[in-house]
Amino acid sequence: MRSLPAGDPGVPDSRSATRYLVWLALRHKAVFSAGIALGVLWMVAQALMPAAVGRAVDGLTRRDEGALVTWGLVLLGLGVLQAVAGILRHRCAVFNWLAAAYRTVQLTVQTANRLGAALPRRVAAGEVVSIGTADISHIGHAIDITARGTGAVVAIVTVAVILLGASVPLGLVVVLGVPLLMAVVGLLIRPLHRQQQAYRDSEGALTTRAGDIVSGLRVLRGVGGEPVLSARYRTQSQALRADGVRVARVESLLEAAQVLLPGAFLVLVTWLGARFALRGEISAGQLVAFYGYTAFLVSPLRQLTEAVDKLTRGHVAARRVVRLLRLTPELAEPARPARLPDGPGELVDVESGVTLRPGRFTALAATAPEEAAAIVDRLGRYVDGEATLHGVPLRDLPLAAVRERIMVADNDAHLFTGSLRAELDPHDTADDATIAAALAAASATDIVDALPDGLDSAVAERGREFSGGQQQRLRLARALVADPETLLLVEPTSAVDAHTEARIADRLAVARAGRTTLVCTTSPLVLGRAEHVIFVEDGKAVAEGTHAELLDGEPRYRATVSREEG
């Protein structure tokens, strides 16, 4: 048993869908080539069997026991060769299928990680899900079918040469008839291609809508929007069903053609062979062989039509994968990365004038929440702006270095499936005491105590078993366990009650003592615990000081905070 690739999947050729499929095939040249060679051997062994039977029948009519035994042994050898080649071909085909599908999954995940926060803005969630569920299967089948398809072509050529040698008219029927049959089947492939594309697009859109509905179910119920969204989902699902019926209609015609056309071809060649045998132009053994050839041709013809079908599906799927792989991150790595001095430094957003001094617990109050979010995006380099650390522009630093020094924790972050311990400490670097301290600071100890297995309890997808406030506290605890050099928190207490918020405000300042921390909030409970408060209006820092100083001396700040209290 060969192992699938576990490391770097490599750099894909994403110039076109065809080039991507070729690149996948060549990633395992030996197994891919062996599969084709075995496929040819498997099909040719079957193609030669009618000839051996015909020779044995001719030996029988001449009462030549030696010829009968010889050709009988040849037939046995061909049968053994076909069985062995078939088994080995199937093993190679399965490996090629799995390798192509698994490598596509690796590349899809790698691209999603590379795009990061830009992914939801560039690609619908349903598109990524459909690639990981349906498209990888079609791509695997496209790589797998090449062995059988090549074997079918070689087998048909072999039969045509044998028939031309025995009877030119019969040989010409095969030589001209097979391309004609393939042309007829090809007429069905193009509409199938179009219907599959429409179905795949509808499927991705419906998957995205389903994910949006599930993620926002609580809000929808709260505002009475659930029936409206349900009706829209029902309408879209019926449209998807109609697209599926259209695909099935074309596929049924293709399946019928795969049976009817080779069958009609078999009847034609058999009828012609019988007439030639009656006229004495071919022997009885050749007639038996001709019948065997035409019966055998049903198999390679079906293999060819299946190959066209699967290669078409694989090409459609590969085109969507290539479209995803071509996406580039919104943040580019610098050509000549700068180096940062060791230790914490001053973090500055030049555009707004916000300056975070190292080791201080700072709060940022903005008249508009989106202004605070924009500042944090620049300070965390989720967008490129005029932000510096130690006086070095963040855009000149490797993105990995920025992420290592600065962590942004907002309410768009998700909880993932797995144990709660792994959720809070994904890198498995913190001990139980560190996790307990982070939970206490986030006022989330009661959440863990209520779980049947404590930290070892399983977390469902997106943490749906927790309320909004519980999820927010667990996300805060996760950020505190990471203990970054600089932590930027966006509204970390917006979903909790006032008593819990007061506890978090007190404990957060202690937990982050001596570490650079910024909390974006307009809550007086949090602002009152901050060492330094920055007030932002119209995207600019207009006042700084303690919470008490700003309340006394800045009316605009007092008005912003009063709205929060009200």
From TrEMBL:
The chain crosses the membrane at residues 30-48, 68-88, 145-164, 170-189, 259-278. InterPro entries: ABC1_TM_dom, ABC1_TM_sf, ABC_transporter-like_ATP-bd, ABC_transporter-like_CS, P-loop_NTPase, Type_1_exporter. Signal peptide: none annotated. Residues 34-313 form the ABC transmembrane type-1 domain. It is a multi-pass membrane protein. Keywords: Membrane, Transmembrane, Transmembrane helix. It holds the Pfam family ABC_tran. PROSITE patterns: ABC_TM1F, ABC_TRANSPORTER_1, ABC_TRANSPORTER_2. GO terms for cellular component: plasma membrane. It is found in: Cell membrane. GO terms for molecular function: ABC-type oligopeptide transporter activity; ATP binding; ATP hydrolysis activity. Residues 248-563 form the ABC transporter domain. This is ABC-type multidrug transport system, ATPase and permease component. It comes from Micromonospora echinaurantiaca. The lineage of its organism: Bacteria, Bacillati, Actinomycetota, Actinomycetes, Micromonosporales.
